Amino acid sequence: MSGGLEVLSVKEEDMLKLLAAGAHLGSTNVDHQMHQYVFKRKPDGIFIINLKKTWEKLLLAARAIVAIENPADICVISARPYGQRAVLKFASSTGSTPIAGRFTPGTFTNQIQ
């Protein structure tokens, strides 16, 4: 991100952590809206995600989360088994509300009056 604070600029250590987590590996299918985030395609068909753009979107998400005054108003959701631990850890460190497991669509929008 240009014009930002130096502390928020991407460091080699940050990139190595993203690589170790496999954040750069996509799937064999890519939506047309995701093409701007694709770096390359491997010979086996796996798309490689641009980690610099991933870092920029992480900073954008962090700024949106920090802008909310009451952390309990933030709801972190993962119905997938591999995301539930991350949701619980994130919620415990930020004070947000976790929903790990089954989440019924419309829970927020279809309130009974």
UniProtKB/TrEMBL annotation:
It comes from the Eukaryota. GO terms for cellular component: small ribosomal subunit. InterPro entries: Ribosomal_uS2, Ribosomal_uS2_CS, Ribosomal_uS2_euk/arc, Ribosomal_uS2_flav_dom_sf. One of its GO terms (biological process) is translation. One of its GO terms (molecular function) is structural constituent of ribosome. The keyword Zinc-finger does not apply. Keywords: Ribonucleoprotein, Ribosomal protein. Belongs to the universal ribosomal protein uS2 family. This is 40S ribosomal protein SA. It comes from Candidula unifasciata.
